[in-house]
Specification:
Blueprint lengths: L1 E2 L4 H10 L12 E2 L6 H12 L7 E3 L2 E4 L1 H9 L2 H9 L2
Parallel strand pairs: 1-2
Antiparallel strand pairs: 3-4
Helix pairs in contact: 1-3
């Protein structure tokens, strides 16, 4: 989960993922705004995903989009099915 510390959408994405307390391994957060290479990370993510906003969420190495995408996956149970399929 590529995030920014002050971003409300990033917080919302973390709240969705926190609904899965048994998830092993736990999700990993990179707070991009705290890193000296923030501009390079953003440029890389934009090139890789076509998305220039945060959060930028990857599950099993695949981009799933941002906060609203993750919330939609949670709401229609795709997220729990994906985690189950992955053995998480």
């Amino acid at each position: 989960l590529f995030s920014k510390t002050y971003c409300p959408y990033c917080l919302a994405a973390k709240q969705v993922l926190n609904r899965y307390p048994d998830m092993k391994p736990r999700y990993h957060v990179i707070e991009v705004d705290l890193r000296p290479d923030a501009d390079r990370i953003k440029a890389y993510l934009t090139k890789k995903t076509g998305q220039s906003t945060f959060p930028n969420i990857f599950i099993d190495g695949k981009s799933v989009g941002g906060s609203s995408d993750l919330a939609a996956m949670d709401a229609d149970k795709r997220l729990s099915k994906l985690f189950h399929k992955m053995g998480i």
